[in-house]
Design a protein that fits this description.
Nucleotidyltransferase, domain 5; binds zinc ion; alpha+beta; 18 strands; 5-stranded mixed beta sheet; disordered C terminus; Arc Repressor Mutant, subunit A; about 25% strand; about 375 residues
Length: about 375
């Protein structure tokens, strides 16, 4: 089952949109007739009736047969119209870009991926988007690394060498569709919201890869910050005496970025370490994992203390790396060793959608930008990756 829920601000100007989104959210839960929507939203029956007609015209909602109520006349049920609006989620990673074509209810229709050339070329991404077909697509969501402004300009992506790259406008022009750009950690955080049964979850998504970042969701909404730099935790000082590529000393990335953890370990050594062989060959790698785990635990403690959030989810390249499970276990052990009296330890887990999380989150971002509601996929995610 898939639900949609309102995430916009209820200002007077947006009241109409707010009511549309409330009605849409109610219908998306399934098995609702107009009278159920009236009861759930608290809106007048005439208002609900008008909004439903508009949503049907916009091909967001359709009638779905009848249910016989107790002693009363048959009720006409409503459901999401899953046959018209399509969304494309795209994630641009370091080496590969992936695109998925999804329905309004989060059903996967098509997927494709392509290599990302060292010299980045937006034409490659435009071709990838066309491969999953753009017919009936309402909007494209694009997940990218770095600091992203709502106008679709990537202000800065250090590891890609991007500065003020107008990627949203460029791809919108090439594809002839609205393109909504979102930071990759924020995209994965949104995919977790989409998978959460909680209507207003608080969670922090930790992106672990070549860079480190966090996507912060408070009460079901992304907290992006005034300068859109919320969650830029890779360069906070965790008290180590190492110089970072950013020029500062002591940054979290100096010990916990994935390439630093892996160092000179060969695939054979990593495989031995992943299968719990602790011997001379894996000793150095084990020490780097422990050092990273302590740095990450320190950053997580600061975040949980500052935000009062206890759900931490790990996403990004580390979810597909063989050292991922042992790194997560080491972070959890470090967190468990430092818990204030009366508190339960914070535990990290991997993101629910695994490697597809950034793509699903990008599509969820596009749906939210277009309709003011968040995609909620209560169905089983395509892959889980537990520790
Ligand atoms: Zn730094």
């Amino acid at each position: 089952m898939t639900r949609l829920r309102y995430t916009g601000k209820a200002t007077i100007e947006s009241l109409r949109e707010h009511n549309d989104a409330l009605v849409l959210q109610s219908i998306a839960q399934g098995g609702r007739a107009r009278t159920d929507v009236v009861r759930e939203t608290g809106l007048p029956a005439a208002t609900v009736s008008t909004i439903v007609s508009t949503l049907v015209e916009r091909k967001l909602v359709r009638e779905a047969g009848h249910a016989v109520s107790r002693g009363g006349k048959p009720r006409t049920l409503l459901e999401l119209d899953d046959d018209h609006h399509r969304f494309i989620g795209v994630h641009i990673g370091r080496e590969r870009a992936t695109a998925q074509r999804l329905t309004l209810a989060g059903r996967l229709e098509q997927r494709a991926s392509t290599a990302v050339p060292a010299e980045f070329d937006p034409a490659v991404i435009a071709r990838l988007i066309r491969r999953v077909r753009t017919e009936n697509v309402t909007a494209i969501g694009l997940s990218v690394p770095g600091i992203v402004a709502p106008d679709g300009v990537v202000r800065s992506a250090v590891n890609f060498g991007w500065n003020w790259l107008p990627l949203g406008a460029e791809l919108a022009q090439r594809c002839g569709l609205p393109v909504h750009v979102v930071n990759d950690a924020n995209a994965i955080a949104l995919s977790e919201v989409a998978h959460s049964a909680d209507t207003g979850p608080d969670l922090v998504l930790l992106w672990l890869g070549t860079g480190i970042g966090a996507g912060i969701v408070l009460d079901g909404r992304l907290h992006e910050g005034r300068g859109f730099r919320s969650g830029e935790i890779g360069h906070v000082d965790i008290g180590v005496a190492l110089r970072c590529h950013c020029g500062l000393v002591g940054c979290l990335e100096t010990v916990a970025a994935l390439p630093i953890i892996i160092g000179d370990a060969t695939p054979e050594v990593i495989a031995r370490y992943a299968s719990f062989a602790d011997d001379n060959t894996t000793h150095a790698l084990g020490k780097r994992v422990d050092r990273a785990a302590h740095g990450l635990a320190r950053a997580v403690s600061m975040l949980t203390g500052a935000l009062d959030v206890d759900e931490f989810v790990v996403g990004g390249p580390v979810t597909d790396d063989r050292i991922g499970p042992r790194l997560l276990a080491a972070v959890n052990a470090a967190l468990a060793a430092r818990v204030m009296s009366g508190f339960t330890p914070v535990r990290l887990r991997f993101s629910a959608f695994g490697e597809d999380s950034a793509v699903v989150g990008a599509a969820a971002h596009a749906i939210r930008q277009e309709f003011g509601v968040a995609l909620t996929m209560v169905a089983e995610p395509p892959r889980t990756h537990a520790v």
